[in-house]
Amino acid sequence: MRFQNTNVLYCRGGYEEIEGDFETVSLETFEYIVSPSPFLDAKTLRPIEFTPFQLDGQNRPLPRFEHASPRVSVIIPVYGSPRYTLDIRNEVEALLPELKALNGRVIISVDGHDHPLQTSLHLNLLKGIDVETVEVHSHEKNIGFIRNVNFLYEKTSDDEIVVLLTTDVKMQPGSLSRVIAPLVSNDDIALSTPFAVGGENLEAPESDVLHWRDLDTILSNVETSYPDAETNVGYMLAIDRRKYPAAELFDEFFENGYGDDSDLYYRCVNLGFRGVVADNCCVFHEHGASFDLTSMRSELRSENFRRFMGRWGQVHSERHPKAAARLDMLKSERGRLASALVQSLPMPKIVFLLPTNLRTIGGVAAVFDLVEALCDLGVSAAVICRQTPFDESGFASRSISYDNVARRDIVLANATVLIATSSDTVEPVQELARQHELKTGYFIQGPEFSFSDGQFLSSVVTGYLGFDAIFVVSRFLEEVVKDHVDKPISLIPYGPRLEKYYNLGISREPKSIAVQLNGNTNKGAAFVAGVVASLVPKGYRIYSFGDDALRSKRKNFCTHLGFLTTAEKIRLFNRVEFYLDASNYEGLGLLLIESIRCGAIPVYRHNGGTSEILKTAGCGIEIGDYAAIGKIDQQLSEFRRNANFETEREFCKKSVEGHTLEAAAEAMLEWYNAQC
């Protein structure tokens, strides 16, 4: 039976289509509602012999399937940030032994980009992957998430189990087998999704467990019940092609994700099958891998929700509340079980003490990122926070409240080293270390004695004494603190994650400069104001970002963009010729490294951290103090006339290439293995 130009298949069961043009096709004992698509060729559909699904609860008999394990194909659509591609490559390589045992394979499709260099970045990161088990495809032009998924789905056969995996998912060994298990062992289950931290309606059970990997370890040992998902989510979605007869997975009625997976769920329900939660599995879902270079994410989500509710609103409102209530009860039970078993888990060996869990603060986010990177390396690490005003649900690792004394003491009783992260955590770290007989460390990210105009100089300097180890994020900080410490100093070369920031190779706006401007004196707000006043009359375009409150005040002199997401910073740093670092001082200067990786030429004051690296390497453009602001135009003009931008970009990038999150975690692990 062939349906011309067909994208999506429904069994008629009383759910009325509100939008779109549809035709009815009769096949002996049942009817299909077919949604035409102008983008696809004719597809062959294999009918299943059963009578129509009835809404009155009289279930029709389901076909029976062989319970021997079918072949498994993992399909991975790739788009967006190359860092997700690097992450998913690591996940695939860890998955290969399990996949080979399942007679499985991986099919990857790199979608086209507006910028060809970005497609090349993805393909280069996938080079050398196991070609016997993994096949890689690419598209010259962008076809969108849904068409890319459908392209991959076409590469599989109708007797397989297919697992859709997005690039922003991390999982543990055994996850794949647990997700496909309900499809193999139950004739009435066609879809399966695990719980996830960041799982939307399938969010992982709330518990005292600190890390998603530990929660997965607990769940992997519980008896499964496979509750209805209502609805499944596409971050890791197993589909039994023996039961779902459509040739395409998602309906192009939904644009580029959001709502397509829920629509699939109700189509399977309408065929008489179930979509369930693999409730013995938990993965981590970061969100947004396919949307990191678009500002249309919220608009797409809103429009697709409107379309979904137009199609399934009535049935969703009837079914979802009861199913959600049942799932919430199960999650509560699982959460209580996990909390009760938390002491049976391997306890963190490296513990950091932070003043707060507010991850919008750069230094706080850096510690959480370092902890997660250590966990990825197999070292259990954790964070204790003196204040916890920030909701940490949805994050890979969570903190322990300093005020939760019982929980805190259990963790510290099994730890090896406790690390201070700021001057106001020094005394608590030393006291707790004495109580629990722990080694101590101090993770220094900036010249704290200069903070608050030097008000705390004495206490900061004396606080460096008495630790077993001192960790610094740059050689500049090593020079700053070496005369005030009594233990060896270890360099932890912190920086952005590999491939998180990248050069798109696009044309840049002539005489354009990006700069952070947030009203913070320490970040050189007064200096920036002087630079703007000097350069704008000479034809320079200044793009500032930071405090949203400054947006209207700066509009006559520069374009102020307010707070920027990672994606917005990538776009900005790829748009401008230069990035100005005007801070009075920097322990490292993360923004400068991020902009360099995106290809902006660094213009910097000699303020420590990254600027010291650039000055030593002799790259970028060093500018003087406030009195030299009038000379900046001359420096930039001379550079624009005489320098080779591409050569300088590569020179600058190479000078800071050793500063990455991964390198920082490796250095911390090396110290731990040597000293603990």
Automatic annotation (TrEMBL):
Keyword Zinc-finger recorded: no
Pfam families documented for this protein: Glycos_transf_2 (PF00535)
Coiled coil: none
Keywords: Glycosyltransferase, Plasmid, Transferase
Single GO molecular function: glycosyltransferase activity
Family matches, as SUPFAM superfamilies: Nucleotide-diphospho-sugar transferases, UDP-Glycosyltransferase/glycogen phosphorylase
Span of domain Glycosyltransferase 2-like: 73-210
Family classification: Belongs to the glycosyltransferase 2 family.
Name of the featured protein: Glycosyltransferase 2-like domain-containing protein
Organism: Tritonibacter mobilis F1926
